[in-house]
């Protein structure tokens, strides 16, 4: 039986496990991750604002692997040699096919891991007038500073550093204008560099991927090792987003279990939704852009559907003798 080892709980591997729950492979599947819960980045703004808990913003990997017949190993990945994965605790895990979806390596001041970030925010909440800097002019940076403004007291000073790039470089012009207006209304300064002194800094940008892959998501020098998500350097640079990783996951699930492989073909455009407040967001698809409460409603629905779909697809089947209760005619209390 083939040994498939998944290292990291990125979006791509969540999709792979969900696929294996519906279509059990003739293989032993093992997921290796250093935590038992995987962050869901789409819920980060709501988490910062205090609308949801860390548990609600993450996926239980133990339950997910159990529901699709896979094994879960909690350990830190330290690399691979030959056909064995090396863990930091010294143990080795053999594989026939290996996939890596660990995301970009976070720095000490990064938004990841989420637990560290939320602990820092709790500390800032207790300061009378905290000065917080966020580095990164992409969607993550904009969402984080606006969420911090909603969370922290009115005396907090929040600064966004965008460097030499324009704000939201991959967004249409209309979306950039809407985001700038929201930042101005929230009293957030946008500059090429952060003012000093400052109490704390968050890095809200994704480092460059460091694992070169082919269109099949295989490493350049290994046919049995794959990579996907933010850690994978595609032949043509791709936008760093969960939507891309999810699409890669569908191809990855197929290629891990078949000899004839498929190529990942990046979409020409993807839907992006950026939350501006608890009730307002801006969305764009290609050059088309719209803002208001409707994009925010759509974002919440998509986020909830993503998480609920995982559990609905992976829920163990109901025993044959147990029938659904007839609730027809009952009224809500």
Query: Which sequence of strands runs across the widest sheet?
Result: 5-2-1-9-15
The beta-strand count equals 19
- Main sheet specs: 5 strands, parallel
Overall shape: it is: globular
Main structural class: alpha/beta
Order of helices and strands: EHEEHEHEEEEEHEHEHEEEEEHEEEH
Helix proportion: 25-40%
Rg calc: 21 Å
Mean residue pLDDT: 87
CATH C-level label of the largest domain: Alpha Beta
Keywords:
single chain, 333 residues, alpha/beta, FAD/NAD(P)-binding domain, 2 domains, five-stranded parallel sheet, four-stranded parallel sheet, 8 helices, 19 strands
Explain what the structure shows:
The model is unreliable at 316-333 (pLDDT under 50). This protein is an alpha/beta fold and 333 residues long. It is globular. Helix 1 (11-22) packs across helix 7 (242-255). It starts with a strand and ends in a 19-residue tail after the last helix. The chain has helices at 11-22, 44-49, 61-67, 114-125, 139-151, 173-185, 242-255, 293-314, and strands at residues 2-7, 27-33, 37-39, 58-60, 71-74, 77-81, 84-87, 92-94, 97-100, 131-135, 157-161, 189-191, 200-203, 211-212, 225-227, 232-233, 271-275, 281-285, 288-292. It has two domains: 2-105 and 207-267, FAD/NAD(P)-binding domain, CATH 3.50.50.60; 114-203, FAD/NAD(P)-binding domain (3-Layer(bba) Sandwich).
């Amino acid at each position: 039986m083939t040994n498939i080892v998944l290292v990291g709980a990125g979006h791509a591997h969540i999709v792979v496990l969900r696929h294996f729950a519906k279509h059990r492979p003739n293989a032993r599947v093992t997921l290796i991750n250093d935590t038992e819960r995987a962050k869901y980045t789409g819920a980060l703004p709501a988490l910062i604002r205090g609308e949801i808990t860390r548990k609600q913003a993450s996926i239980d990997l133990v339950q997910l692997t159990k529901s699709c017949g896979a094994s879960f190993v909690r350990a830190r990945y330290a690399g691979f040699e030959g056909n064995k994965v090396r863990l930091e605790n010294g143990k080795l895990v053999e594989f026939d096919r290996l996939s890596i979806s660990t995301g970009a390596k976070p720095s000490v001041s990064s938004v990841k891991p989420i637990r560290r970030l939320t602990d820092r925010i709790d500390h800032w909440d207790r300061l009378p007038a905290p000065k917080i800097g966020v580095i990164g002019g992409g969607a993550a940076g904009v969402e984080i500073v606006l969420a911090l403004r909603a969370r922290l007291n009115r005396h907090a000073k929040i600064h966004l550093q965008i460097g030499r790039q324009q704000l939201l470089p991959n967004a249409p012009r209309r979306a950039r204008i809407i985001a700038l207006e929201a930042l101005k209304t929230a009293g957030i300064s946008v500059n090429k560099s952060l003012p000093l002194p400052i109490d704390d800094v968050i890095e809200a940008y994704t480092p460059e991927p460091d694992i070169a892959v082919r269109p099949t998501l295989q490493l350049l020098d290994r046919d049995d090792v794959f990579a996907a998500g933010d850690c994978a350097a595609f032949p043509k640079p791709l936008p760093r987003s969960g939507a891309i990783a999810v699409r890669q996951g569908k191809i990855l699930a197929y290629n891990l279990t078949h000899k004839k492989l498929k190529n990942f073909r990046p979409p020409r455009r993807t839907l992006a939704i950026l939350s501006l407040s608890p009730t307002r967001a801006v969305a764009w698809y290609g050059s088309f852009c719209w803002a208001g409460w409707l994009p925010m409603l759509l974002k919440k629905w998509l986020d909830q559907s993503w998480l609920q779909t995982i559990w609905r697809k992976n829920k163990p089947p109901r025993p044959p003798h147990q029938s659904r209760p007839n609730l027809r005619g009952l009224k809500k209390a």
